[in-house]
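Review form for a predicted model. The reviewer records the input and the model, then writes brief findings.
Reviewer: anonymous (R2)
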Amino acid sequence: MTDATRCPACQSEHAYQDRDLWICPECGHEWSAASSAVAEAPADAGVRDAHGNVLNDGDSVIVMKDLKVKGSSSVVKGGTKVRNIRLQDATDGHNIACKIDGIGAMNLKSEFVKKA
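Model under review:
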Protein backbone atom coordinates (compact mmCIF):
# COMPACT_ATOMS: atom_id res chain seq x y z
CA MET A 1 0.00 0.00 0.00
CA THR A 2 1.34 3.44 -0.87
CA ASP A 3 1.76 6.29 1.59
CA ALA A 4 -1.08 8.15 -0.16
CA THR A 5 -3.56 5.54 1.07
CA ARG A 6 -2.27 5.39 4.65
CA CYS A 7 -4.20 7.37 7.22
CA PRO A 8 -2.38 10.67 7.85
CA ALA A 9 -3.68 10.76 11.43
CA CYS A 10 -2.79 7.26 12.70
CA GLN A 11 -0.78 5.70 9.81
CA SER A 12 -3.23 2.78 9.56
CA GLU A 13 -2.98 0.61 6.45
CA HIS A 14 -6.67 -0.26 6.54
CA ALA A 15 -7.97 2.91 4.88
CA TYR A 16 -10.60 2.50 2.19
CA GLN A 17 -11.96 4.77 -0.53
CA ASP A 18 -15.57 5.99 -0.66
CA ARG A 19 -16.14 8.13 -3.77
CA ASP A 20 -13.70 11.06 -3.48
CA LEU A 21 -12.75 10.44 0.17
CA TRP A 22 -10.43 8.04 1.94
CA ILE A 23 -11.71 6.80 5.33
CA CYS A 24 -9.78 5.23 8.19
CA PRO A 25 -11.89 2.66 10.07
CA GLU A 26 -9.54 2.71 13.07
CA CYS A 27 -9.59 6.43 13.96
CA GLY A 28 -12.45 7.71 11.79
CA HIS A 29 -10.30 10.29 9.96
CA GLU A 30 -11.51 11.26 6.46
CA TRP A 31 -9.41 12.91 3.75
CA SER A 32 -9.25 13.29 -0.01
CA ALA A 33 -6.25 11.99 -1.89
CA ALA A 34 -5.87 15.27 -3.79
CA SER A 35 -5.93 17.46 -0.70
CA SER A 36 -3.68 15.19 1.38
CA ALA A 37 -0.70 15.88 -0.88
CA VAL A 38 -1.34 19.62 -0.63
CA ALA A 39 -1.98 19.53 3.12
CA GLU A 40 1.23 17.66 3.96
CA ALA A 41 3.56 20.28 2.49
CA PRO A 42 2.51 23.28 4.62
CA ALA A 43 2.14 21.19 7.79
CA ASP A 44 5.91 21.33 8.29
CA ALA A 45 5.91 25.12 7.92
CA GLY A 46 6.02 25.80 11.68
CA VAL A 47 3.54 26.49 14.42
CA ARG A 48 -0.06 27.10 13.36
CA ASP A 49 -3.01 28.60 15.23
CA ALA A 50 -6.44 26.98 15.56
CA HIS A 51 -7.44 28.21 12.09
CA GLY A 52 -4.26 27.03 10.34
CA ASN A 53 -2.48 30.40 10.10
CA VAL A 54 1.29 30.25 10.52
CA LEU A 55 2.52 31.97 13.69
CA ASN A 56 5.87 33.78 13.98
CA ASP A 57 7.84 35.28 16.85
CA GLY A 58 6.48 38.72 17.74
CA ASP A 59 2.94 38.08 16.48
CA SER A 60 -0.15 38.97 18.45
CA VAL A 61 -2.76 36.30 19.17
CA ILE A 62 -6.21 36.18 20.74
CA VAL A 63 -7.14 33.46 23.22
CA MET A 64 -10.23 31.66 21.91
CA LYS A 65 -11.65 30.19 25.12
CA ASP A 66 -11.33 30.54 28.88
CA LEU A 67 -8.16 28.79 30.06
CA LYS A 68 -7.48 27.86 33.68
CA VAL A 69 -4.02 28.78 34.92
CA LYS A 70 -2.41 25.68 36.39
CA GLY A 71 -1.61 26.03 40.10
CA SER A 72 -3.73 29.15 40.48
CA SER A 73 -7.35 30.20 40.72
CA SER A 74 -6.81 32.68 37.85
CA VAL A 75 -8.41 32.30 34.44
CA VAL A 76 -7.27 33.69 31.09
CA LYS A 77 -10.55 34.87 29.56
CA GLY A 78 -11.49 34.12 25.97
CA GLY A 79 -10.88 37.17 23.80
CA THR A 80 -7.72 38.22 25.67
CA LYS A 81 -5.17 39.67 23.24
CA VAL A 82 -1.59 38.54 23.82
CA ARG A 83 1.16 40.59 22.17
CA ASN A 84 4.73 39.71 21.26
CA ILE A 85 4.61 35.91 21.49
CA ARG A 86 7.71 33.72 21.34
CA LEU A 87 7.62 30.27 19.74
CA GLN A 88 9.37 27.40 21.49
CA ASP A 89 9.80 23.65 21.13
CA ALA A 90 6.63 21.94 22.32
CA THR A 91 7.78 19.16 24.59
CA ASP A 92 4.46 19.15 26.46
CA GLY A 93 2.30 20.78 23.77
CA HIS A 94 2.76 24.33 25.04
CA ASN A 95 4.57 25.90 22.09
CA ILE A 96 3.93 29.62 22.74
CA ALA A 97 5.70 31.59 25.48
CA CYS A 98 4.13 34.93 26.39
CA LYS A 99 3.31 37.47 29.09
CA ILE A 100 -0.34 38.16 29.89
CA ASP A 101 -1.34 41.36 31.69
CA GLY A 102 -2.50 40.62 35.22
CA ILE A 103 -1.20 37.05 35.17
CA GLY A 104 2.44 37.18 34.06
CA ALA A 105 4.65 34.85 32.06
CA MET A 106 3.10 31.61 30.88
CA ASN A 107 3.02 29.08 28.07
CA LEU A 108 0.05 28.46 25.76
CA LYS A 109 -0.91 25.78 23.29
CA SER A 110 -1.32 27.08 19.74
CA GLU A 111 -4.60 25.16 19.33
CA PHE A 112 -6.33 27.59 21.73
CA VAL A 113 -5.31 30.85 20.02
CA LYS A 114 -5.98 32.63 16.74
CA LYS A 115 -3.75 35.13 14.99
CA ALA A 116 -4.77 38.74 15.59
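Findings: The radius of gyration is 18 Å.
Further findings: Residues 73 and 111 are 22 Å apart (CA to CA).
Recommendation: see findings above.
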